[in-house]
Amino acid sequence: MHDENGTRQDGLLTIADIARHFGLPESTARYYCKRFAPFMPSVGEGRRRRYRPGALEVVEAVLDAMQTARNAAAVEARLAGRFARNVLPLSSASGYDGQPPMRGAHTPELASVPAETAGMAAIAPSRASVPVAGALLPEAALALLEQQNRTLACIADALSSLSARQDELARLVAHARGVEDELAGLRRDVGNLRILLNASEKMQQQDLDQLRTWLTRIIDEKRRAARG
């Protein structure tokens, strides 16, 4: 039963109460409560299951983790670091021995939620709650996160391959520069050989000119001697 403010008189919450508290579709709230059931303080079974006010803190932690966690396992790991399996925060659980509570065992209420105000706290809007798009179902969100993980892995592989190709390209560029240096040296050698060849040709031409002059003089002298 609910009082005139819509709060259950026994302080327990339904899926609809949790969904209304965070502005979520009931299907989304139901998924969170089932998926992370080990951290949800509840009583009853099946359709009679009701949740203690401490479940609001767990759902709020789930919504916060969903903003950055890659998958449901990562969200569960964060919950495990903050909540015990009996859904009491590790920092405020008194007498907790690290073992899950036995079925039917009494689960203490959160110290921060007095019994007389637990119902109101369950229904009052939470300013610290993280807004989540109501139209996005958890299954789709987790599938999207996993797809993003695969995409990031493909990008990482592509970057690694690109880095290897860049290293190979750098080696090829260095080799090409070495070849260019060798070609430049060969060009210098060819230029020097051309200079030497031109100088040699000039010297040979000068020698030939001198030889012609000398032979011409000798021939002229012999002709004059023959005439005389």
Automatic annotation (TrEMBL):
<dbReference type="GO" id="GO:0003677">
    <property type="term" value="F:DNA binding"/>
</dbReference>
<dbReference type="GO" id="GO:0006355">
    <property type="term" value="P:regulation of DNA-templated transcription"/>
</dbReference>
<dbReference type="Pfam" id="PF13411">
    <property type="entry name" value="MerR_1"/>
</dbReference>
<dbReference type="InterPro" id="IPR000551">
    <property type="entry name" value="MerR-type_HTH_dom"/>
</dbReference>
<protein>
    <recommendedName>
        <fullName>HTH merR-type domain-containing protein</fullName>
    </recommendedName>
</protein>
<dbReference type="InterPro" id="IPR009061">
    <property type="entry name" value="DNA-bd_dom_put_sf"/>
</dbReference>
<feature type="domain" description="HTH merR-type">
    <location>
        <begin position="14"/>
        <end position="62"/>
    </location>
</feature>
